[in-house]
Design a protein that fits this description.
Layout (H helix, E strand, L loop, with lengths): L1 H18 L5 E2 L3 H11 L11 E8 L8 E7 L17 E4 L4 E7 L3 H5 L14 E6 L2 E10 L2 E6 L6 E6 L7 E7 L5 E12 L4 E13 L5 E14 L2 E13 L3 E9 L16 E9 L5 E18 L2 E16 L5 E9 L25 H4 L12 E5 L5 E11 L17 E12 L5 E6 L9 E14 L12 E5 L2 E2 L9 E8 L1 E9 L2 E13 L7 E14 L9 E6 L11 E3 L11 E4 L2 E4 L3 E3 L1 E6 L4 E7 L1 H4 L7 E4 L1 H5 L2 E8 L5 E13 L5 E5 L2 E21 L3 E11 L6 E7 L4 E7 L1 H4 L2 H4 L9 E6 L2 E9 L10 E5 L5 E10 L5 E6 L4 E7 L4 E7 L8 H17 L6 H12 L5 E8 L3 E6 L6 E5 L5 E6 L4 E4 L7
Length: about 950
């Protein structure tokens, strides 16, 4: 009886544990949640996430620090099983289109508790995490509460200024945001999207879309227009938005077209994992609405299968199958297509080939293994990219693997199927009319005090006899008993019945019921692997190899890289460790994905070996949060957001194919605590205090090895200012001597004129020292109180005496430099055309007052007309106007320039008058440079980089 009591207690424990659901993460807008992945799971060797980026096209703006660089990017974590696809397909993001602040809700939405009058506000703290993405600026922040004051805490080491407008009617209801970047540019996120909380049947704001960008002088440089998609859900009227136009003032516009599938929106449609939008076409047009380039996207479908309660459930998603780039005439100039994994990897995990799914005759059905077996974790990931040349790149992913740290013990994450298998004890076909009693023997563990084994029974009734039953009202039932006792555990979805506790020795099986019949029964016992591994294979995938093939028919890769993640000192152990923190609730360890749970942590690899096709290889060693916090169980830890999400490189060692080290790099880091509010993480027994830190100093030592045991060593030290996170000092030590460089930014110079506008990134002063002597010292002044532009540039002699090298005399309303004077008193004038976006003339030796305004207007107007004419026009009129301008200023050195807007410079005519013309191919790439007679001076050839 004792053995069944233990069995009952274990079963009860399992049931109770299953009911203790972890806090869920909610990512209500799939396309935006994809962007947060790039912040939380960086593309890095230490995360096993490869960089897969494809440029689309660029739209410049008036501000050099704000660029609209469109590109397709693939992040394999966004292709996790049962993850929703974005508006460009599973795993893919169209970067710099969906510029927004999105929210990840941890547990219930913060608005629910914060605005509830019954909430104890003395104990309340915010949990939700916000991510921002806008034209390359990205980061992560949370709200904090101090008394009745709500403020924002930036979780990164950057100086973006985050402001918000709170509702006057509620304690916490954010209406909009403004983020000022480190160059003073202002991003306005004031188009909010409401999403539905199904549990409470209430709406809350899930995202804030960017509508415009102003420069530091409050001039609009970017404007975004949105298409509105009204819908209703649970009788609530809602509106969704998608960007349809991104307008760069005076430069051009990006237009987007979508296909809309409203049926994908509703949460009741739980087996459809596609976004309700698909980007159909993206166009780049100039200010005259003339097409420069366009990109068409084509899609396919994909099926996932999940075995639930004896049934196979089919899930559908959307994949990006093809990207077609076209020129201004609509002709195809470049095509890439994609193939995705549908079968899993060739690798087997654990001692059992089918990961323990080969115990019963009905087990080896792959669909049943998809959720549990690491072999199938790669299904849906990118496996092949076919290049425009028809060559292709193969991506081979595999399951993540990690050694479970001590702090994960008892958390229910670990599966043991890689360390044990079920060894058959006996199996038989039965016919209860002939025999209903069978025996089997459980082998001893050799530990008398703990002498039991876990068993699994496969029991299948094939037919009943008689059939039909003598009593037509009866339901036929045949079951089995072990040592006269029924098993209280029912069969799982795979037809197996587990008996966690069965004592060693002989046992009897009795088969009986309300009729007789025939069937099959087998007994297997859990057996540890002969050489059990310490790691587990779970929770996402990593890159195994990348292979490049030159043509469609190639069978041998022209280039390849293969990655290994085992510990360098123990090849049988994984170097992977889970990241320490996910959100700001200790229970936020799982993310819900359509009824299944994934560990919401990165796996960070401390050792990565990268092997090239020729046999040479590089070994990378990383450190993580646990290395700077040896006592993980402490109630107070140091915290660096970047280090929580990836590893920091500690050592890099390069070897040739003969295993000879040819170079090495070692890294040392010094951290320092920031004067910022500690982050409090909720735990069952109280709060964990996280003290924000930053990397104050970084030392790199490089060594190059040569034959006969010769080597050369150099080192570089970099120091960072804790107040603005800029590099303020570097020191390089080589055989020739010691080079030191000091950098001064607005914070170091306390230039409040710039700091008041949140300008932290302007380099104001730079000083270089060699072996203790100053060899170079320059400074940029901002002394004009009427603007925020440079007023002069200074240099210092060896005695530290300053002299003015250049004076910036005049700017136009757009901040373009119109006149400067060098230290020898010579002035130069720059004329801006093409709607004040490009320099069209440089006049050396003149002042702006020396040039008639009518002459300036003539070439400015001609350039504006040329811009309206579009690319590849004959430029006759603009060149005639420029020649007249040059002939009117024969006493000066004049250089003139023409352009094809959004393509490039079209011609340059120097003071000599000998013009060079620039010609571009259909893809907008510089093809050749020719002189005035058509003679080719330079010619460019392009190959695709693999």
């Amino acid at each position: 009886m004792r053995k069944y009591l233990i069995f009952l207690l274990l079963t009860l424990y399992t049931c109770l544990k299953a009911q203790n659901n972890p806090t869920e993460f909610s990512k209500p807008i799939p396309t935006l949640s994809y962007l947060s992945t790039y912040v939380d799971t960086p593309v890095d060797l230490s995360t096993g996430i490869p960089k897969i980026d494809l440029p689309v096209f660029d739209l410049p703006t008036r501000n050099k620090n704000v660029s609209i660089n469109l590109g397709m990017s693939y992040h394999v974590r966004n292709a996790a099983r049962f993850q929703k696809s974005s508006d460009v397909g599973l795993g893919w993001s169209l970067m710099n289109i969906n510029n927004a602040i999105s929210k990840v809700t941890i547990g219930a939405m913060d608005e629910k508790a914060a605005n509830n009058p019954q909430t104890n506000m003395d104990l309340f703290q915010f949990d939700d995490v916000f991510f921002f993405n806008a034209f390359g600026m990205s980061g992560k922040f949370v709200f904090r509460k101090s008394g009745n004051i709500i403020n924002v805490q930036n979780l990164g080491t950057s100086k973006e200024k985050i402001e918000f407008t709170n509702s006057p009617n509620k304690f916490y209801d954010i209406l909009d945001f403004k983020i000022t970047d480190e160059y003073g540019n202002q991003y306005f996120f004031n188009k909010s999207v409401k999403v539905l909380d199904n549990y409470y049947n209430e709406t809350y704001t899930g995202a804030y879309y960017l509508t415009k960008v102003l420069d530091v002088d409050n001039q609009e440089i970017v404007k975004i227009e949105y298409a509105e998609y009204p819908y209703s859900e649970y009788q609530l009227s809602m509106v969704d938005y998608k960007p349809k136009k991104i307008i760069s003032k005076d430069y051009g516009v990006i237009n987007l077209e979508y296909d809309y599938f409203p049926e994908n929106r509703y949460k009741s449609n739980t087996t459809n994992m596609s976004d309700c939008y698909r980007v159909k076409k993206v166009e780049l047009k100039d200010t005259e609405n003339k097409l420069i380039q366009e990109v068409n996207l084509e899609y396919g479908g994909f099926f996932y299968y999940k075995y639930e309660y004896g049934n196979t459930v089919t899930y559908t998603t959307t994949t990006l199958d093809k990207i077609i780039k076209r020129n201004s005439q609509g002709n195809e100039i470049e095509t890439r297509s994609f193939v995705y994994n549908t079968t899993g990897t060739d690798r087997y995990y654990g001692p059992s080939p089918n990961f323990g799914f080969d115990v019963c005759p009905t087990d080896p059905e792959p669909i049943r293994e998809w959720i549990d077996n690491p072999k199938y974790s790669v299904i849906g990931t990118l496996s092949k990219m076919i290049l425009p040349t028809k060559g292709y790149v193969k991506f081979n992913f595999e399951s993540n693997q990690f050694d479970p740290p001590a702090w994960m013990a008892g958390m229910g994450y670990i599966s043991g199927k890689e360390t044990y298998y079920f060894k058959p004890i006996t199996s038989f076909d039965f016919d209860t009319k002939i025999n209903s009693t069978f025996t089997f023997n459980v082998t001893s563990t050799g530990k008398p005090q703990d002498d039991f084994r876990e068993l699994v029974f496969c029991f299948q009734v094939i037919g009943y006899d008689p059939n039909p039953l003598l009593d037509p009202e009866a339901i036929p039932n045949i079951t089995f008993f072990v040592d006269g006792q029924p098993l209280i555990q029912t069969a799982d979805g795979y037809g197996r019945i587990y008996m966690p506790v069965c004592w060693a020795g002989p046992h009897t099986i009795t088969i009986g019921g309300n009729t007789t019949g025939v069937g099959y029964l087998s007994v297997s016992e859990r057996t540890e692997a002969e050489h059990p591994q310490s790691y587990v294979s779970k929770y996402g995938v990593r890159i195994r190899s990348i292979e490049t093939f030159n043509s469609e028919s190639s069978v041998k890769a022209s280039n390849s890289k293969t990655y290994y993640y085992e510990k360098f000192m123990d090849p049988n152990g994984s170097s992977g460790v889970p990241s320490l923190f996910t959100g700001f609730k200790k229970s936020s360890d799982f993310i819900t994905m359509y009824g299944g749970y994934e560990l919401n942590r990165n796996i960070i690899y401390k050792n990565v070996k990268e092997v090239d096709r020729d046999g040479g290889y590089t070994k990378y060693t990383f450190i993580g949060m646990d290395d700077i916090n040896p006592a993980i169980t402490s109630t107070e830890l140091d915290y660096l957001e970047d280090l929580n999400n990836r590893g920091l490189l500690k050592k890099k060692e390069m070897f040739d194919s003969a295993n000879q080290m040819i170079a090495s790099e070692s890294h040392e880091y010094t951290t320092q605590t920031l004067s910022a509010t500690p982050i409090m993480v909720e735990q069952p027994s109280g709060y964990l205090k996280l003290n924000p830190i930053y990397i104050k100093k970084h030392n790199i030592t490089n060594t190059f090895y040569y034959p006969q045991n010769r080597f050369i060593t150099s080192s570089k030290e970099t120091q960072v200012n804790k107040f603005d996170f800029n590099v303020d000092y570097t020191k390089e030590t080589t055989e020739k001597g010691v080079y030191e460089t000091y950098y001064f930014y607005p914070q170091a110079k306390l230039l409040n004129k710039l700091l008041d506008k949140n300008i932290y990134k302007y380099l104001l002063e730079k000083k270089e020292i060699f072996n203790g002597k100053t060899i170079f010292h320059i400074e940029t002044k901002y002394d004009d109180p009427s603007n925020l532009f440079p007023s002069s540039g200074l240099s210092y002699d060896l005695q530290n005496n300053p002299s003015t090298d250049i004076t910036y005399n005049q700017y136009d309303s757009k901040g373009n430099l119109l006149q400067y004077t060098t230290k020898d008193g010579i002035s130069t004038v720059i004329i801006w055309g093409y709607n004040q976006t490009q320099p069209i003339a440089k006049i050396e030796g003149a002042k702006l007052s020396d040039i008639q305004q009518s002459l300036i207007d003539s070439i400015v107007n001609a350039s504006n007309t040329d811009a309206a004419a579009g690319a590849n026009n004959d430029e006759v009129n603009v060149l005639d106007a420029f020649n007249t301008f040059r002939n009117s200023l024969l006493g000066y050195q004049v250089t003139t320039y023409t352009y094809d807007p959004l393509v490039g410079v079209r011609s340059i005519t120097p003071p000599s008058g000998i013009r060079e013309s620039y010609m571009y191919d259909a893809a907008g790439r510089l093809e050749k440079v020719v002189d005035a007679n058509g003679k080719v001076l330079k010619e460019m050839k392009y190959n695709y980089k693999n």
